[in-house]
Amino acid sequence: MSWGFLRDLLSGVNKYSTGIGRIWVAIVFMFRLLVYVAAAENIWKYEHDEFECNIKQPGCENVCFDHFFPVSHIRLWALQLIIVSTPSLLVVFHVAYRENREKHNQKPYRNPGKIDGGLLCTYLISLILKTGFEIVFLVLFYKLYNGFKIPRLVKCDIRPCPNTVDCYISKPTEKMIFLYFLLATSCLCIILNLSELSYLIFKHSTKCYLKKYMKKQQ
C-alpha cells in the first residue's frame, strides 16, 4: 500500500499548524506510519498461516481464527491511520479556498498565513474529529479483542471443532510489544490534539477579551 497521499495531505496542514500540531504530524509519520510500514506489517503478514490448532479437523482452525481475530490488527491500524488523517482534508480544502480567494483578490484576508476566522473554526473541528476517531478506534480494539492483549494460547470449542482444542498464536511477545507501542502513540496523539485544541481556544478567547477591553478603554 502506498502512503504518499497521507504525506501530501498532512504537509499542507503543517503550514498552518501550531507547534503542537507539528509534533502531532511528526509522531504520525515517524512513530506510527513508519513503524507500521517497516515492522508491524511484516509481523502480522502471515498471522493466519501461522495460527495453529492441535487438531486437523477440516474448518476448525479457520473458524477459531475468525472468532479470536474477527478483524486483522494490521488492517484495523491501517484504517485507523487513514480515518484519523481524513479530518485534515477539511483544513486543506479551506486553505485552498482561501488561497484561491486571495489569488482573485476577492475580499483578501488580513493574515492569509495564519489560523483565524473561518479557518480557525475548521481547524478546531478537525481536531475534535481526530480526537473522536482515535478514541473510537481504541474502544473498538478493546471490544473486538477483549482487551489489549495477545495470549500465547487460546481455547476454542466452536463447531466444527469436535471438542475444546488448543490454538497457538505465533510470536505473541513480539506482537504485544508493537501493540502497546501503537496504542501508546495513539494515546499520545489524543493528548496532543486536546492540548492544541485547548491552546487555540484559550488563545482566541484571550484575544477577543483584549479587544473588548481595549474598546472599553477607548
From TrEMBL:
Keywords in alphabetical order: Cell junction, Cell membrane, Gap junction, Membrane, Transmembrane, Transmembrane helix
Segments forming domain Connexin N-terminal: 42-75
* Transmembrane regions listed in the UniProt entry: 21-39, 77-97, 118-142, 177-202
What is a biological process (GO) this protein takes part in? cell-cell signaling
Domain Connexin cysteine-rich, residue spans: 133-200
- Pfam families associated with the record: Connexin
Q: Name one GO cellular component term.
A: connexin complex
Q: Where is the signal peptide?
A: none
Lineage, top-rank taxon, reads: Eukaryota
Is Transmembrane among this UniProt entry's keywords?
yes
Its subcellular locations are: Cell junction, Gap junction; Cell membrane
In which broad location class does this protein mainly occur, judging by the first location in its UniProt entry? other
User: Which GO terms fall under molecular function for this chain's record?
Assistant: gap junction channel activity
Name the job this protein performs: One gap junction consists of a cluster of closely packed pairs of transmembrane channels, the connexons, through which materials of low MW diffuse from one cell to a neighboring cell.
Q: How does it assemble?
A: A connexon is composed of a hexamer of connexins.
Belongs to which family?
Belongs to the connexin family.
Question: What's this protein's name?
Answer: Gap junction protein
Q: What is the species of this protein?
A: Xiphorhynchus elegans
